[in-house]
Each structure stands twice: as structure tokens, then as C-alpha cells.
């Protein structure tokens, strides 16, 4: 495993798992949020984003976290493994909420400069509707790229057990 893609809802532990995998397997970590978001949570110009993602996935070795459904067809063929953190709504919300409590107003190490941690209505709605809106987009992309092996983990316990077993 030299190129690992981590997907799942906010608060599921994607960035934490990316850091742990990067350390364990000595792989560089790519947090897509650091590349997409500009200060004050301004999104990158949409026309540039696919080019940026193509450059990021061109490397021979990486652990990459982030959904960004519009670029899945660029990332999935390059990945040796997809780790899908398919956790439930409440686990995701709890993870995001506790992260905000711990880091509110601070910029996380896996986030772009000028984007302090926050929990607003838009983020809450995205999390609440993830299984209905975003998960099917991911599942369709997985179906288009069956050659890419996938591990589906549904709880923090499964995530930790899988990581320990590596």
C-alpha cells in the first residue's frame, strides 16, 4: 500500500486516520481541505480544482483524506486502497461536535490557513444528510472503479482494530 484514499463524513476520523497511517507506513499525508479552502473558508476556483487534485495524486506515495465527489474519478484509479469510514450519523455528528468544542476558533493542522474550526448550519446539514446525499455519490464512484480495493469501517472500534492489524 503506497497510495491510500480515506473517505467518509465529517467527524468520522478521516484526518486522524490519515495521520496515523502516514506515521505507521511512512507515507506523506495529503489533506485535501488544505488545498481546496482559502482563507475565510473561501473555496478554490472550481475550474482549477481538478488540476490541483491531479497533481496531488500524481505522486507515488501518499495517504489522502477528503471526499470532494467531483474528483473521485481522478483519485480512485490512482489509489492502491480506499478506506471508507462508513460511520453512522450520530457518530459523525458527535465527532464533529467534540472536535469543535476542543478546537473552536483554532485552525486545525489538517486545515488551510485562515480557516478556523467551526460548526455552522451548512456543515450540520451536510453531516445530517451525508448518508442520503454524499454516500450514494461515493458508492457510485466505487462501482465505476471496482479494481480499487476498499475497506469499509463502520465504527471507531473497527477503525482502531484495522489500524492495529496493519
How is this structure best summarized?
The protein is built from eight helices and seven strands, in the order βαβαββαβαβαααβα. It has 166 residues and is α/β, with parallel strands linked by helices.
CATH superfamily: P-loop containing nucleotide triphosphate hydrolases
Distance between the termini: 11 Å
Structural class: alpha/beta
- Element order: H for helix, E for strand: EHEHEEHEHEHHHEH
Strand content: 15-25%
Count the DSSP helices: 8
Helicity, as a percent range: 40-55%
Strand order of the largest sheet: 2-5-1-6-7
| CATH C-level category | Alpha Beta
Name given to the CATH architecture:
3-Layer(aba) Sandwich
Number of strands: 7
Protein name: DNA topology modulation protein
InterPro entries: Cytidylate_Kinase-2 (IPR052922), P-loop_NTPase (IPR027417)
Give structural notes.
By secondary structure, the chain is of the alpha/beta class. It has a single domain (3-165), classed as 3-Layer(aba) Sandwich (Rossmann fold), CATH 3.40.50. Helix content is 47%, strand content 15%. It is built from eight helices and seven strands, in the order E-H-E-H-E-E-H-E-H-E-H-H-H-E-H. It has helices at residues 14-25, 32-36, 49-57, 72-75, 89-103, 121-128, 130-144, 156-165; strands at residues 3-7, 29-31, 37-38, 42-43, 62-65, 81-85, 150-153. It has a five-stranded parallel β-sheet with strand order 2-5-1-6-7. The protein has a two-stranded antiparallel sheet with strand order 3-4. A hairpin with a 3-residue loop joins strand 3 and strand 4. Helix 6 (121-128) crosses helix 7. The radius of gyration is 15 Å and the shape is globular. The N and C termini lie close together (11 Å). This is DNA topology modulation protein. InterPro entries: Cytidylate_Kinase-2 (IPR052922), P-loop_NTPase (IPR027417). It comes from Candidatus Phaeomarinibacter ectocarpi.
Amino acid at each position: 500500500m503506497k497510495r491510500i484514499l480515506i473517505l467518509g463524513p465529517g467527524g468520522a476520523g478521516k484526518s486522524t486516520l490519515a495521520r496515523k497511517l502516514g506515521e505507521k507506513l511512512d507515507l506523506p499525508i495529503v489533506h485535501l481541505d488544505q488545498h481546496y479552502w482559502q482563507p475565510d473558508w473561501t473555496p478554490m476556483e472550481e475550474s482549477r480544482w481538478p488540476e490541483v487534485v491531479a497533481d496531488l495524486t500524481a505522486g507515488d506515495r501518499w495517504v489522502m483524506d477528503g471526499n470532494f465527489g467531483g474528483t473521485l474519478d481522478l483519485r480512485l484509479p490512482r489509489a492502491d486502497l480506499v478506506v471508507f469510514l462508513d460511520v453512522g450519523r450520530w457518530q459523525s455528528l458527535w465527532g464533529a461536535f467534540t472536535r469543535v468544542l476542543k478546537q473552536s476558533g483554532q485552525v486545525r493542522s489538517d486545515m488551510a490557513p485562515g480557516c478556523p474550526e467551526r460548526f455552522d448550519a451548512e456543515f450540520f446539514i451536510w453531516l445530517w444528510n451525508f448518508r442520503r446525499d454524499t454516500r450514494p455519490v461515493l458508492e457510485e464512484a466505487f462501482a465505476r472503479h471496482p479494481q480499487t480495493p476498499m475497506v469499509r469501517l463502520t465504527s471507531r472500534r473497527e477503525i482502531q482494530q484495522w489500524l492495529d492489524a496493519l
